[in-house]
Amino acid sequence: xxxxxxxxxxxxxxxxxxxxxxxxxxxxxxxxxxxxxxxxxxxxxxxxxxxxxxxxxxxxxxxxxxxxxxxxxxxxxxxxxxxxxxxxxxxxxxxxxxxxxxxxxxxxxxxxxxxxxxxxxxxxxxxxxxxxxxxxxxxx
Length: 140
Hints:
This protein is α+β, with helices and mostly antiparallel strands. It folds into two domains: 6-69, 2,3-Dihydroxybiphenyl 1,2-Dioxygenase, domain 1 (Roll); 81-140, Roll (2,3-Dihydroxybiphenyl 1,2-Dioxygenase, domain 1), CATH 3.10.180.10. Helices cover 16% and strands 36% of the residues. Strands 1, 2, 3, 4, 5, 6, 7, 8, 9 and 10 form a ten-stranded mixed beta sheet that branches. A hairpin with an 8-residue loop joins strand 2 and strand 3 (43-46). The two termini are 22 Å apart.
């Protein structure tokens, strides 16, 4: 049996980034870092202690991020990010097993099926499973 691919990150949307950050800092003590306009207003959150590279120190814990919600209903539900060794093979597996590739939303609000390179992190693609759940895959 092949090794399972772990969930390594979660994502949720926000309407007001500052309000969201204040909420999660106050309620759970999460640290937030706004990645700025160049990263589409993405806000990283640390839910657990991390090393100098932002990697979790406690096995089994994950960090996450928040993105600006859009009019696209797919942006409204939380999702998880699964780490894969070969993202192109995993994309084929998604499609061959009844899922869909959702691609990447561009700054102009259009979708592209191009893999997105997240600097210092890896290749990323958004997908949908057979039940309509959105998830992402990343090849570090």
